[in-house]
Amino acid sequence: MVVITSGQTQPWIDFHPVSALANDYLLIKPGQVFRHDFSQTWHGWMVVFRPERLHSIGNGQALATQIDTLPDHCSLASSVLQDVEVGLSNMQRDSAEVIDVPTRQSLLQLQLSYVLLRLCLVQASGLHPGQSPSRAFAHYERFKKQLEKDFAKHHQVQHFSATLGLSVKSLNRACLEATGLSTKSCINQRIALEAKRLLAHTALAVQ
């Protein structure tokens, strides 16, 4: 996670430039390719963490699952940024001052969970009271999660529609509404992205 407090920067996430200004945050998720921008001056915070080590939230749902829905890039209101900075400042202080390792680890996990929950609340507040995402968008989110699990072995639209219990037409409509792409194009795009990631992260050659 990168939080920009002043200045601006344009790093790359998964081979696309992202223009980030003060009050913005970037969330780079496991497997994504991230490249720093060293051409501009900016100040802020960077936290590297393992999602599976995060605490569960109140209803028992893993916080790691919750943050999967957060965007890669978002602008924060000044009041929210202040809350986030307080949490990160506490983490910085306690990582240096708390000597007992198990206590320090638990404290940092709780503080990081606080920061990430703040970001989750920002996303949830974008909906009006009582409003929930559209049915098509909910279908797309389910498809996106299933695609992450199955894209290496399954490349057919029919596999995903059957697995999700949707018609091919309904799934295609959901993908078009959420991304502007057909289901097949989403699948192909994910396969191509994985190929790029492997070339960036490993010594594999193009074959």
Automatic annotation (TrEMBL):
InterPro entries xref list: HTH-like (IPR037923), HTH_AraC (IPR018060)
Q: Which GO terms describe its molecular function?
A: DNA-binding transcription factor activity; sequence-specific DNA binding
* Residue ranges of every copy of the HTH araC/xylS-type domain listed in the record: 141-207
Record's superkingdom? Bacteria
Per the UniProt record, which residue ranges are transmembrane? none
Leader sequence residues: none
Ordered alphabetically, the record's keywords are: DNA-binding
| Protein's name according to its UniProt entry | HTH araC/xylS-type domain-containing protein
- What lineage is this protein's organism placed in? Bacteria, Pseudomonadati, Pseudomonadota, Betaproteobacteria, Burkholderiales
